[in-house]
Design a protein that fits this description.
about 250 residues, Rossmann fold, nine-stranded mixed beta sheet, 6 helices, 13 strands, about 30% helix, globular
């Protein structure tokens, strides 16, 4: 079984983000694997342990993403592939999906797994777009997965509960928290990962799809307006003040 796991490198949630003109200022940013992608890596490794085959960790972006791929190696991935994109636009999920789909097609992948969403752009789009481009089934928010031969059975989260679906490989799916418990890389795994080769693919190697999105500006949200405490003698006076504020200041009624 050939399993591709998608690994995205994102800023640590505790990092102070400074916004530049068209992108964030990366100086001083601590980068991590997007947490949901850790569930994807773990599930890929478990599938290999059960069915044999290989797990290929794939990450797209500039040279710094190699660190994320080495973490995937340390967790147990068999191969690591860096799709090198220096001017990476994380908002262009279609371009990302095209590059990954072209790679997956060349590898004849049986299973493609990504996290349910990345914690930077929160789009939840890449894996479903990969599935659409390849013409294969897609299962979102998986919390349980069983594969027997080519038969696939998965339980996925839906609003208000869960749903069990069945399909067949090749298949693409996104991992939700609860699918598994990601393992910690061992010291031996970390040391070994430093010596393992990371394959590099250029956009030209993968069909050179053109980006359809241009970032023209990036700015932080406006500062939140401080709250105001109403003071009145009774409930009727409070209500009158509130209605006046909603009508004249907030202009919502």
């Amino acid at each position: 079984m050939k399993i591709i796991v998608l690994v995205k490198q994102v800023p640590d949630t505790e990092t102070s983000i400074k916004v530049g003109d068209k992108s964030i200022n990366e100086a001083g940013v601590k980068w991590i694997i997007s947490p949901y992608d850790e569930f994807a890596i773990e599930e890929g490794i478990r599938l290999r342990e059960k069915h044999s085959g290989e797990v290929i960790a794939v990450s797209l972006g500039p040279d710094r993403v190699v660190d994320a791929l080495r973490t995937a190696y340390a967790m147990g991935a068999d191969r690591a592939v860096h799709i090198k994109v220096d001017n990476y636009v994380p908002f262009d999920t279609n371009n990302t999906a095209e590059l990954i789909a072209n790679f997956a097609k060349a590898e004849n992948a049986d299973v493609i797994i990504g996290g349910r969403q990345s914690i930077d752009t929160d789009s939840s789009q890449v894996v479903v777009q990969v599935a659409e481009l390849l013409g294969i089934p897609h299962i979102a928010f998986a919390v349980n997965l069983e594969i027997n031969g080519t038969a696939v059975k998965a339980t996925k989260e839906v609003e208000g509960g869960t749903q069990t679906v069945e399909t067949s490989t090749p298949v693409a799916l996104t991992a939700q928290k609860g699918l598994n418990e990601p393992r910690y890389p061992s010291l031996k795994g970390i040391m070994t990962a430093k010596k393992k080769p990371v394959e590099t693919k250029s956009t030209a190697d993968l069909g050179n799809p053109a980006s359809k999105i241009e970032v023209v500006g990036l700015e932080p949200p406006p500062p939140r307006i401080p709250g105001r405490k109403l003071e009145a003698a009774d409930a009727n006076a409070y209500a009158a003040q509130l209605v006046k504020a909603l009508r004249e200041e907030a202009k919502v009624i």
